[in-house]
Automatic annotation (TrEMBL):
This is Pyridine nucleotide-disulfide oxidoreductase. SUPFAM superfamilies: FAD/NAD(P)-binding domain (SSF51905). It comes from Anaerococcus hydrogenalis ACS-025-V-Sch4. The keyword Oxidoreductase applies. The keyword Flavoprotein applies. The lineage of its organism: Bacteria, Bacillati, Bacillota, Tissierellia, Tissierellales. Residues 3-268 form the FAD/NAD(P)-binding domain.
């Protein structure tokens, strides 16, 4: 077993969960990207003990706190978490890591899905290029870029694919490797039969491809852990932050509203304590 606990998500909920498990002498790994939403918040007035604080300052305090403990932090996006009886396997794309328990605290996807996105998830559509790009070696790939990470993902795909097309709905200046075609249009709909085969753009242009990637800040909850129970678009948990899968906990925005830092930290503590005591 690589770890006692792997926490997916490096926001307030994930940091609180990892901290509380580490205090109880558990070997903890937190996997996730820094929370852009908190860093960009100009003023937080309802966090107990602080009358008014910029989001980036509060978040830095969280990070400074967790770094005082022997918690490993990995700046990476995972592909999925698999429950394998007495332990969990976390798929990083290039390797697998195992843990006794796991906590999902990766936030929510605030953006509206592209039509057909949910229907064809894992059927020609992926959220992790470094995880699945090898499936399309020598093939045509379309990537919809919705965050800064998409640039590195597209460059990675381009080393393997025969043809790479970058859909740039924000019409931003991009520093992409040569050979990548950029289309400054918004995606409208994925179509296909058993799997996604084409992407329709806002002006009706149709792009056929072997595979599609959507790179954004967070993935759908159901894509993180197969068989986890979803209710109203969020992972369903009990008062202990336990999901329907034994040993798998969830906390923060991913389990529902309100999307508040206070609530995320509290739920993270509950999840961390229960994961640490899980038998």
């Amino acid at each position: 077993m690589d770890y006692d606990l792997i926490v997916v998500g490096f926001g307030p909920a994930g940091i609180a969960a990892g901290l509380n498990a580490s205090i109880r002498k558990k070997k903890v790994l937190i996997i996730g990207k820094k929370s852009k939403a908190i860093e960009k918040s100009p003023s937080i007035k309802n966090y107990l003990g602080f009358k008014d604080l910029e989001g980036k300052d509060l978040y830095q305090r969280f990070i400074d706190h967790i770094k005082e403990y022997p918690v490993e932090i990995m700046d990476k996006k995972i592909k999925a978490v698999y429950a394998l009886g007495d332990y969990f396997s976390v798929d990083l794309g290039d390797k697998m890591l195992t843990s006794k328990t796991c906590i999902l605290a990766s936030g929510v996807d605030m953006g509206k899905s592209i039509e057909g996105e949910d229907k064809f998830f894992a059927k020609g559509i992926s959220y992790c290029a470094t995880c699945d790009a090898s499936l399309y070696k020598g093939k045509k790939v379309v990537l919809v870029g919705l965050n800064d990470e998409a640039i590195d993902e597209a460059n990675f795909i381009n080393k393997l694919a025969k043809e790479t097309i970058f859909i740039n709905p924000k019409n931003e200046d991009l520093k992409l490797d040569s050979g990548i075609k950029i289309i400054n249009k918004k995606p409208k709909e994925f179509i296909g039969d058993m799997k996604a085969s084409s992407l329709i753009l806002e002006d009706g242009e149709k792009i056929e491809a072997d595979g599609f990637f959507i790179i954004k800040n967070s993935s759908k909850p159901q894509s993180l852990a197969p068989s986890v129970k979803i209710e109203n678009g969020h992972i369903k948990v009990d008062s202990n932050m336990q999901t329907n899968i034994k040993g798998l906990f969830a906390c923060g925005d991913i389990v529902g509203r309100p999307y508040q830092i206070n609530k995320a930290v509290g739920q993270g503590q509950i999840a961390g304590l229960n994961a640490a005591s899980y038998k």
